[in-house]
Amino acid sequence: MYVVYVLKSELFDKHYVGFTQNLIERFKSHNSLGRKGFTTRYRPWKVIHCEFFIDKISALKREKFLKSGVGRTWMKNNIGDY
To answer: Alpha-carbon distance 52 to 35, whole Å?
Structure first.
């Protein structure tokens, strides 16, 4: 099972889209374990949206869509806390 997720940093009004097989561990990494990268600069994060997929290819396609301009518009229109 794969999860495509959207994180929000309310403090900095930033969003992050990613995918993983283990959302809890990945969330810990974004909020405390990671030492470098985009998400370390804008902590704390909260999960505002998740979608579940059986296969990796479908999850990657959805992640790519959500990172596109059309996908960002979709998130603004369909995710309540975006």
So the answer is: 27
Hey, what are 11's tokens?
A: 């403090």
Rounded-to-10 torsion of CA 17, 21, 23, 24: -150
Q: How do residues 42-81 score in pLDDT, each as one tens digit?
A: 999 999 999 999 999 999 999 999 999 999 999 999 998 8
CA 14 – CA 55 distance, rounded (Å): 28
- What pLDDT was estimated at residue 6? 97
Residues 73, 77, 79, 82, CA torsion sign: positive
Alpha-carbon distance of 18 to 78, in angstroms, equals 17
